[in-house]
Design a protein that fits this description.
The complex is a heterodimer. The two termini of chain A are 39 Å apart. Chain A is globular, with a radius of gyration of 29 Å. Helix content of chain A is 12%, strand content 38%. By secondary structure, chain A is mostly beta strands. In chain A, strand 22 (482-487) and strand 23 form a beta hairpin. By secondary structure, chain B is an all-alpha fold. In chain B, 73% of the residues lie in helices and 0% in strands. Chain B has helices at residues 5-13, 19-42, 45-62, 71-90, 98-104, 108-111, 121-128, 132-142, 147-153, 158-187. In chain B, helix 4 (71-90) packs antiparallel against helix 8. Chain B starts with a helix and ends with a helix. Classes of the chains: A mainly beta, B mainly alpha. At the A-B interface, helix 1, helix 3, helix 4, helix 5 and helix 6 of A face helix 1, helix 2, helix 3, helix 7 and helix 8 of B.
Amino acid sequence: MKCRDVRRALPALLDHELPPGETAEVKGHLAHCRACRQILEQYRQDDLLLKQHLRAAPWRPIEHRPWETGQAPTAGFWAALASGGHKLAAGTALVALLAFVTVAALALRGIANTSNGDPTPTVLGSAGEVSTTALDPAATTGVLAGRPTPEVVIEALQEKGLVFDINQEVHAGDQTVRLTRLAVDRTISYLEYTAPAGELDLPVEMLDETGNSLAVTALRTGNADEDGEGTTPLTRNWLPLPGLNPDTQSVMLRLVPRSAAPTDVRVPLDLSPLQALPDTKLVSADSIVNGTRLQMLTLSRGAAVSLLAWEASVVDQSALVAADDADIGPASQAWPVTIEVDGVHVPILSMDGFGRETAWYETAEVFRLPNQGRVRITIDRIYLGSLTGDPAIASAQGPWVLEFDLDGQTTLEPVPTDVVPTPSPPLTPSPQPTATPVPPATPTLPTHLYFAAQADDGVLALWRQPADGSAPRPVVYGPADLEAFWLVPGTNQIAYRLVDNPAVMLTTVDGAAPQPATMPDGRQVAEYVGSPDGKQIAYVTLDRQSLWVGTPGGSKFVSVPTVKDPRTEIITGVEWAPGRDLLRVEIEQAYGGKRSIIVGVGGPNQIVDPMVWELPREALSYAWTPGGSELAYSTTHGIFRFRLTEGGGIETDITPPALRRGGPRALTDLHWLTDGRLAVVAHGDASSPAPADLWLMNPDGSDAWRAVRELGSVADLLWAPGSDGFIVGTIDSEGAEPGIRAMLLWYPSIHDEPVALAERLSSQQFSQLTWSTK
Amino acid sequence: MERGLVERQRGVDRAAEVDLAAFDSIVAAYEAPIARYLYGMVRDVELARDLTQETFLSAYRALPKTEITNLSGWLYRIATNHALSHFRRQKLVKWVPLSRLATSGFDPSVDSHGDWVVTSSAVADALATLDPKDRACLLLRAAGFSGQEIAEQLNCSPGAARTRLSRAREAFRRAYHRDRADDEAEDR
């Protein structure tokens, strides 16, 4: 399948409307095609953007409402609705059920989040005053019983000294509202207000002391005369707002009437009770049921509302049991999740969720989580979306039971966890893969070469190409596909991950028995990246939320700030700058974006406060200058240089005019040559790999020229150390034979004809070329 | 599916009591989402309000003779028809260069609200470059409708709706990401 076919199919893939056979083909292509994956990611991002755009769009109420004063259109409206065959029959109860089904489905999919800005779920209580739902575990009957109302949460926060009186009447335009109290917790806040019923629809923004916007939403009250007695009583309501950082000393509530100047109300705060709370910590528990794995992630304690997070992933597609989304369970259960501590029910306030390519994440805000005891979370259904690989299955059926102990500790650092799957068994190099590299014309390579490619049996293995050009041999081969590998400078170690294990394993170039890579404190890691001088190692914890830097001997071991919000960000990559104590850290965001930061971590004998620079854009490839003083990067729109300064860095666009022509094209494999010029692979269009040429350019972008034409569809390109020779891995689906043909070509210099090193590895994946450092 | 029913349950819940009140409850439930959808279509708050008004008036008048199987789908269909008719009437389909759109700020009514309006002008710019029907497709999808429902709303076959949706996604992607790149270039 070619890129253009895949791209045509991507929207249907996202909408689950692609036939299963084609789905598999498209996913197979995506596995090796970075550019198509990027486009898919953009589509996903666009979907979210459009949803957010719709939610945030401004609107004004209509003025002419003849139905309020005029004649009823017909007595048969609800009859029409029913006779039309709507799944849900007419009538109050069933319309209510419609709403409830949707609420529950939204909750299940994590779209409904009562803390996202709209008025509180008073709608979930009775039609009049909000009832105070008893939290007695025995009283968990009736629709949505057991779910704490804002009043109850506020009362709990009051006990902790976290409710702040406002008592200010505000006339904003022609609307009047009395702001009474603000209750604050770590993950949620509530603004309490009263206004005459039916008269209020007032946008409000919450800002912190520095003027940063924390939330934009609106104060509203329900319909007038909702008590049916012709009166318009003052209605009390609660607006959920985000939780606040414990250091916050005040917030500004800005009421923005639609046709008058905004009114600001400042609320001084003392959040010292929040400062004593323990930091977020990792929780170890998992359960595999019906082909789906659920794994606890974190617990963030609040004064009254705590946040639990877990993730779901598919481990066995064939064992997956589809949940019936139409069956939302008993009406007494607001969420498909039950949480107990030592057998006592813990109410869930709200749930949220978001997905990534490999996992679906859910969070639950729970009320009054005890400090100690054994937690038991029973999850009946979980939304998996496209993770299932089957458009017909959106949700998996459980139940999964996750159990863990609350230890009550004020642990600032994540506790060691045994969440890690069992390390892979020792590698079994036999049977030898039967790939048949074409005997090359015995080229002499600068050093041995390592690369990833599929063996004949389809397993993605790590291969070693000897410098003499003899046939490549596998170094890491099974038991699962290789996910990534890299060499550890200054050693003869190879670090790698297999797709079934998030932990890094270490072996040697000689194929020593693999061992888990660990930090000095014994924890296993998701990344283990040695600095080029071999003196420091960057470790990323298994939850991919913390970065540590240390020396191999353990004399230095410091945490480096990276992730801003553990619920939405993970560290996906770490790269050292040559010759400098700088790290480029790639952080993936839950809603589709990525950001890169550069962190200065000090030398092996220095413990310094890390300095952080944010890179202004996401790129396809990055290249440090040989001295590590500047970073160049390439996108589909150009090539840029970023110089680190104390003020935050300066970006310069150095795209040569020749590479600007002809619209967006993928510019990859950027590389600084030893003579100070830059080399870049320019693909034919915005996709990669696509038929590509190799370009050389001046470092200021003043000129560029095509050095090698028609390299093929370049999957990876690696320059030989200290020369202008390079190895290129290409993937070609245009050949006469069906299937994909992968080749490894050695260009001793940009002027020489290439020599085939290995080809026809029956590979759909062919990447990560790496020279041996020994 | 984003239909905001969380906040609307009470109104709809009570709607069945009296038909007159019922329609009011439907308006209460759907006014904001329909108005936002129409804003996405026409990018003008006042115009969106007028079209919302026309939508509900049409719905109100159509009730006696309409058999409704899908309330929200029906309302969005009426709203889409009004938006498309508006474009036909006013010949408002303009192919304005993105760079001009990005700087024209042609919706002062929104700007005057200050910075609380979080709607992304870049998204609106990109939407504005699409054919109105393609735009409707994307917005209806974002509002949570299935391909089949979109086909009904646009009065075309499901296959045609799928093709249109696919084309619209790609056109939006190209416009939006190019727009961002242009903005970034201007910033430099």
